[in-house]
Amino acid sequence: MARHQITDESPRESLDLGTWRELALEFQAALRTAVVGQNHVIKLLTIAVFARGHVLLEGDVGVGKTTLLRAAARALGGTFERVEGTIDLMPVDLIYYTYLDEDGRPRVDPGPMLRHGNDLTVFFFNEINRARPQVHSLLLRLMAERSVTAFNREYHFPYLIVFADRNRIEREETFEIPAAARDRFFMEITMEVPNDREIRRELAFDPRFYDADALVDSVPQDVLDYRLLASASHAIQTRVHASAALERYTLDLWNAVRDPVSVGIDIEGVDMARLVQGGASPRGMAYLVRAARVAAWLDGRAIVVPEDLRSVFDEVMAHRVFLDPIYELRHDKLLKSLFRAVFATVPVP
Question: Of 225, 253, 275, at which residue does a domain stop?
Fold first, then answer.
């Protein structure tokens, strides 16, 4: 298999992006063995992995979010930790746990965040919004810096990708994720029930979908070498180019999102002058370009085209645009309307 030609000693400049693209497609195929009818979601997750970004997966209960993230962790290889979000979970529970050993003596051992040291590859936070804000604060540093401080030393996690899903159905004993923490997620991907009737029939009647553990176990292991993902990501970002016209187009999109009035955008029943209160920051736009470069590479191109930006725009940008409080309850619907208007208004090069 081509993956065996990739070694840890290979310099970034000599990485074969053609071979890595084959592995990326193999990674997507591996995820499709466990999750059906979610090709677009799987592609977006693959883009985030190769952009070295953290992923928040959203959707109704029972659509397969946890199965997909477990499958991704298996295909990525490396060490894996899973934490269940609960109302009584505290930051110290992630760092260490205490117990009495067989001799009755108190012991303190590293918790799920530390037990694998710098080999930790996938940290999966299930139902993240059930955890308290104090836990979100610790997770914020983990995601932003890939490091934490504990036991009078600093732990670094160079290979880490954080996956999380959010329970958006129940409101009791849940906590809204603060904006700073949400911004650290490279993408927020929504996973819906498939529309295809045959896929729905398969999910309901095929017994193989009744056992999530067996589904995940069927996914090939170590499809990607997690130790080299950072090098592959760097090569993609340096070798996939954006033209001057594409740069101008991206900047025009940025301006239109931040100041829709300036380009004549109007949404019925909305005071456009006060709709957007913040967001679409330089970091957010840099993330958008990173995602678009990976999207272009996955499609076999070495140059970004406007379709690449549009294909990842909602997932990268929507959670980074903040609306006036009077419109916040309609955030998702209004953002979709705003983005459609932006793409219809800004001239495509």
Answer: 225
Q: Is residue 155 part of a domain?
A: yes
Strand order in the sheet with 161-167: 79-84, 120-126, 161-167, 54-59, 185-191
**CA 179, CA 20: separation in Å to the nearest integer?**
34
129 and 257: one domain? Answer: no
pLDDT, tens digit (0-9, with 9 covering 90-100), for 257-299:
999 999 999 999 999 999 998 888 899 999 999 999 999 999 9
pLDDT, one tens digit per residue, over 47-81 is: 999 999 999 988 888 888 889 988 998 999 888 88
Domain range for residue 320?
Answer: 240-345
Measure the CA–CA gap between 17 and 296, rounded to whole angstroms.
12
Same structural domain, 267 and 204: no
Tell me whether residue 32 is in a domain. yes
Query: First and final CA of the chain: distance in angstroms?
Result: 40
d(CA 239, CA 143): 26
Question: Same structural domain for residues 186 and 311?
Answer: no
- Check whether residue 171 and residue 318 sit in a common domain: no
CB 44 within 8 A of CB 189: yes
CB 148 within 8 A of CB 95: yes
Burial profile 191-204: b = 16 or more Cβ within 10 angstroms, e = fewer: beebeeeeeeeebe
In angstroms, the CA 60 to CA 62 distance is: 6
Per the structure, the count of domains in the chain is 2
- Give the H/E segment covering residue 161: strand 161-167
Is the overall model pTM greater than 0.85, yes or no? yes
Give yes or no: residues 67 and 147 share one domain. yes
- Angle, alpha carbons 176-178-182 (nearest 5°): 105
Same domain, 262 and 170: no
Chain position carrying tokens 């209160």: 277
Classify the phi-psi angles of 201: left when phi > 0, otherwise alpha if psi is within -120 to 50, otherwise beta. alpha
| 199 in a structural domain | yes
Q: Describe the chain by its helix, strand, coil percentages, rounded to 5.
A: 55, 15, 30
